[in-house]
């Protein structure tokens, strides 16, 4: 089946309210549809900078604005959509073979990623022309 941006949804995570602050927990396979193998976070992004600009062959991710805000541009080779993330209890589930760019980072934004695999450069597709070839063959 061809990858589709319409399978990449924003998931609302539970927020445990407390007057002294909130907690959001992400339980593998309960709150996200994959087993979490890696957590990483992106921070100190200079104003106007773009990140991403690649797709993954197999990796599934949940992208959360743990602090601040940014936009995720999703592209499946046919359709594109922009998802704005700005609340720590909402995460964007990104399926494999979706081209993504990360833009419009607010000052102090922290982009938290929960990922289904440990880091493997071999899982990346970094050239858009290679991406198009690959999805045309799916
Ligand atoms: P990359 O995923 O290309 O960054 P972004 O999509 O945010 O622009 O990663 C940038 C560099 O960091 C690249 O050289 C690989 C390295 N890296 C790791 O070593 N481990 C990781 O888990 C990640 C996400 C990146």
Q: What does this entry show, briefly?
A:
With 138 residues, the protein is mainly beta. The protein has one helix at residues 128-136, and strands at 10-12, 38-42, 51-56, 61-67, 70-75, 80-85, 90-94, 99-103, 110-115, 124-125. The site of thymidine-5'-diphosphate has 5 residues, from β2 and β3.
Account of the 3D structure:
This protein is mainly beta. 7% of the residues lie in helices and 37% in strands. It has one helix and ten strands, in the order E-E-E-E-E-E-E-E-E-E-H. The protein has one helix at residues 128-136, and strands spanning 10-12, 38-42, 51-56, 61-67, 70-75, 80-85, 90-94, 99-103, 110-115, 124-125. It has a five-stranded antiparallel β-sheet with strand order 1-7-4-9-2, with no helix packed on it. A hairpin with a 4-residue loop joins strand 5 (70-75) and strand 6. The chain is globular. 25% of the residues are buried. The model has no long low-confidence stretch (mean pLDDT 97). Thymidine-5'-diphosphate is lined by residues 40, 42, 51-52, 119.
Radius of gyration: 15 Å
Hey, roughly how much beta strand do the residues contain? 35-45%
The low-pLDDT segments are: none
Quick one: how many beta strands?
10
The hetero molecules present are: thymidine-5'-diphosphate
- So how many helices? 1
N-to-C CA distance: 7 Å
Largest sheet: 5 strands, antiparallel
* H/E element sequence: EEEEEEEEEEH
The assembly state of the depicted protein chains is single chain
Strand order within the widest beta sheet: 1-7-4-9-2
Q: Report the structural category.
A: mainly beta
Shape: globular
Please state the average pLDDT score.
97
Percentage of helical residues? Answer: under 10%
């Amino acid at each position: 089946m061809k990858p589709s941006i319409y399978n990449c949804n924003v998931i609302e995570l539970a927020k445990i309210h407390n007057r002294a602050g909130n907690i959001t927990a992400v339980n593998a396979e309960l709150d996200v549809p994959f087993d979490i193998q890696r957590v990483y976070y992106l921070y100190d992004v200079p104003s106007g900078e773009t990140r991403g600009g690649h797709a993954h062959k197999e990796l599934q991710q949940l992208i959360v604005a743990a602090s601040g805000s940014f936009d995720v541009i999703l592209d499946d080779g046919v359709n594109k959509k922009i998802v704005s993330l700005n609340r720590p209890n909402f995460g964007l589930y990104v399926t494999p073979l979706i081209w993504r760019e990360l833009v419009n980072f607010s000052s102090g934004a922290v982009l938290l990623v929960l990922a289904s695999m440990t880091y493997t450069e071999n899982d990346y597709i970094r050239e858009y022309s290679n991406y198009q070839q690959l999805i045309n063959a799916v």
